[in-house]
Write a structure and sequence with these properties.
The complex is a heterodimer of chains A (124) and B (159). Chain A has 124 residues and is α+β, with helices and mostly antiparallel strands. Chain A has five helices and nine strands. Chain A has a six-stranded antiparallel sheet. Chain B is of the alpha+beta class and 159 residues long. Chain B has a domain at 17-37 and 71-146: Elongation Factor Tu (Ef-tu), domain 3, CATH 2.40.30.110. Chain B is 16% helix and 28% strand. A six-stranded antiparallel barrel of chain B has the order 1-4-3-2-5-6. The chains are: A alpha+beta (124), B alpha+beta (159). Chain A binds chain B through residues 33-34, 36-37, 39, 55, 57-60, 62, 81, 84, and chain B through 17, 21, 82-85, 87, 107-108, 110, 115, 137.
């Protein structure tokens, strides 16, 4: 069974067994506007919680995407290289950025759940 | 007034991002970015904007610098390869890695569905098709010097 958590930087992370998938939320995708390019991390890259992991370029600006938790990147969504618009169309599904193995699941557990994130977005 | 205009069926709201990408595709300078007090019309490739009589009389501010020796740097259009945009401030390097200029405007051109930029390079690199690298996040992004406007303009001159 998978479980999804959220950061205050508007990334989501879905833990499914030992592997976690990371992307940006609907709110982030809408705020960025049309995504035109995504720079993805290489498989094997070590990321830290809150550290830079990817870059998303929209028609408006370039934004860093931070790893919600520390670990090692296991794969990236290469489909975004040809079709970055998937990030706008389905940010929390087909528009995922990368998969990673977590160092410590406690970091994941500390993040906001869907209810808390929903309240956070409403407060913005 | 904005509400009254938006009430018209052919009017849609646009923001600064849309305006900026469209003027860049049209090859138009944004003051304070692509031109400022430190650039003369020859460097900025804007001598066409000065009347013939004034060019002959050399009586406009900066005439000596603009009409004297050929400029050492020139404003050019740039077309990055691939889809990653290079934005204002990105350095421009020649193929040996030497820095030869800087991007002054850059982004993604929605009409071209491709990234576009403009900036200043040493005059020797200003020729159309010259291969350069734009330094984006510390990595060289291959690009070519390209003619502007990036898309043909459709301005009408009033008869």
């Amino acid at each position: 069974m998978s479980e999804t958590r959220y950061t205050d930087q508007h990334e989501w992370i879905r833990l499914d067994g030992e592997e976690a998938t990371v992307g940006i939320t609907q709110y982030a995708a809408e705020s960025l506007g049309d995504v035109v390019f995504v720079e993805l991390p290489a498989s094997g890259k070590t990321v830290t919680a809150g550290g830079e992991a990817a870059v998303v370029e929209s028609v408006k600006a370039a934004s860093d995407i931070y790893a919600p938790a520390g670990g090692t990147v296991t794969s990236a969504n290469s489909a975004l290289e040809k079709e970055p618009s998937k990030v706008n169309e389905d940010p929390e599904g087909a528009g995922w950025f990368f998969k990673m193995k977590l160092n410590d699941k406690a970091e994941f557990a500390k993040l906001m759940d869907a209810t808390a994130y929903g309240k956070f977005v409403e407060s913005l | 007034m904005a509400r009254a205009l938006l009430g018209e069926s052919e009017v849609l709201p646009i923001g600064l991002g849309a305006r900026d990408s469209l003027r860049l595709e049209a090859g138009l300078c944004l003051y304070g970015h692509d031109i400022d007090e430190t650039r003369n019309p020859a460097e900025a490739n804007l001598l066409w904007s000065i009347g013939k009589r004034r060019k002959e009389a050399r009586d406009f501010p900066g005439a000596a610098a603009s009409l004297g020796a050929a400029p050492a740097i020139k404003r050019v259009g740039l077309r990055p390869e691939g889809r990653a945009p290079a934005r204002e401030g990105a350095e421009i390097a020649d193929k040996s890695g030497r820095i030869i200029g800087k991007v002054t405007s850059g982004g993604f051109g929605p009409s071209l569905n491709a990234p576009v930029a403009m900036g200043y390079v040493e005059a020797a690199f200003a020729g159309e098709g010259t291969a350069v690298d734009l330094i984006v996040r510390g990595k060289p992004l291959p690009a070519a010097v390209a003619p502007m406007p990036f898309i043909p303009n459709t301005y009408r001159r009033k008869k």
